[in-house]
Amino acid sequence: MEIYHKIKNLNNNRYVTIYVTYPDEYEFSVDFDTFKKNTKIVADNVKKYISDNFKKTKDMTLVLVLNGVLIGTLLLSGIVTTGSSETFTNIPTSIESVKIAESNNAISNTAAVPEPKQVTTEENIVAATTQNENLVQSNITTQNKEVVPSTNIPAKSTTPTKQSAPPTPTTEIAQPKTSTPVTTTAPTQTAVVQDKMINLKLSSGQTISIGLEEYVTGVVSAEMPASFSSEALKAQAVAARTYALKKIVSGSTLTATKADQVFKTKDELKKMWGSSYDAYYAKVSTAVYSTKGEAIKYSGKYIDALYFSTSNGKTEDPVFVWGGSSPYLKSVNSSFDVGVTGYASTKTLTYSEISSKLGISLNSASSMKVLSKTTGDRVKTAVFGSKEFTGVEIRNLLGLKSADFDISASSSGVTFTCRGYGHGVGMSQNGANVMAKQGYSYKDILTHYYTSISIVKI
């Protein structure tokens, strides 16, 4: 169980919010007596926390949030300890910034409230975005279908939630290792996660049992900058949850590494975020729990919820990346990415470096040109010397950030100018963030990048 608090100022008034995180099974107990016992444990821990952290609690009004659920205000007049006093008055609950997490056994009926305001400085937020993000890719089931690219931008929801613009991330998100896809027959998908618990194999080799939503919170924290807009974080949460569920129903072991999705523990996040930990963890967990139990399906089955850092203005059809196609992973317009930090990059290599990496003999007189493009405007084929390569091969062998590149040769070497970052299949994370800042909801984002899908409750 984790308990922490925040003290905030609003209109010259100070107020305190206490956040309590406890295991899911505390709410979903098998019998009433156990539920009652667990409720008492939570209450006793909250009472002790208040007594330990505030010298005077008489007539203090607090805002209490349990597992992402805003319970409301709490007037404490019965617990008094000696020491210096602090008084908190006129605390408006309507400004509390924690979304309501859906629950089968809600502790109390409450109404949704506005998005949280972070207590950290903008400098801290920018500094915390310098994390290296590992992106996920998985195998695509091969289907003999011609995919027609879409160039449409989705219409905004009729009641979009406007998001304040977060700081631009200061570093790019790391590129995943690629692997050759394996065509498999999808297993029958049934109820998959009993009591919302899953098994997770850590990088140490140890397998632990962890709550699904806690796992998703650790994945979103590792895979997307916490400074991104909340609707983008929600979209990432649903994609990450879908990826995990698809892996579980296939009978495979879910790992905490970039072989699947990177997962970071709370201790790892504290080291990564430093003094911004409380604000960032509250923001990410709020996004996760506000989409609790939501996943993406196509024709009744969980999808390969692929995502990547930044597009070149379009997403890519997987047929040009791994050789297989999918009805919900089509090339779509993603002009949202154009101009974001990390959109453009250059890399210059000598002829000897290129020759060594490509296994050819190349010099300034050799032929080097792009022969054809994909539906996602990336290089489909290119010739270097006397040998023809795919754009993906060039990208992987030469360590380029994207398969959308221009070639500029000089007497000393070749400069590659790239647009975008990543394999380009599925949801663009930077595109999702820009869409969120423009007022699109997380469902708008998901249905744009994954076509003809349904967002369902598991």
Topology:
Layout (H helix, E strand, L loop, with lengths): L1 E9 L2 E9 L10 H22 L6 E7 L2 E8 L45 H7 L68 E5 L5 E5 H12 L6 H20 L16 H8 L3 H13 L4 E5 L2 E2 L4 E2 L35 E7 H8 L9 E6 L5 E6 L2 E4 H8 L6 E5 L3 E7 L7 E2 H9 L4 H8 L4 E4 L1
Parallel strand pairs: 2-3, 9-16
Antiparallel strand pairs: 1-2, 3-4, 5-6, 7-8, 7-17, 10-15, 11-12, 12-13, 14-15
Helix pairs in contact: 3-4, 3-6, 4-6, 4-9, 4-10
What's the SSE pattern? EEHEEHEEHHHHEEEEHEEEHEEEHHE
What is the domain total for the residues? Answer: 3
Integer-rounded radius of gyration: 25 Å
Strand content: 15-25%
- Low-pLDDT stretches are 78-151, 158-195
* Strand elements, count: 17
Number of helices: 10
Q: Order of strands across the biggest sheet?
A: 1-2-3-4
Structural class: alpha+beta
Q: Any idea what the shape is?
A: elongated
Q: For the report, how would you describe the main beta sheet?
A: 4 strands, mixed
Distance between the terminal alpha carbons, to the nearest Å? 25 Å
Q: What integer is the average pLDDT?
A: 76
Percentage of residues in helical conformation: 25-40%
Task: Describe what this molecule looks like in 3D.
It is built from 10 helices and 17 strands. It is an alpha+beta fold and 458 residues long. The chain has 3 domains: 2-95, no CATH class; 133-159 and 172-330 and 424-457, no CATH class; 344-419, no CATH class. The strands form 6 sheets. Strands 1-2-3-4 form a 4-stranded mixed β-sheet. α3 (212-223) packs across α6 and α4 packs across α6.
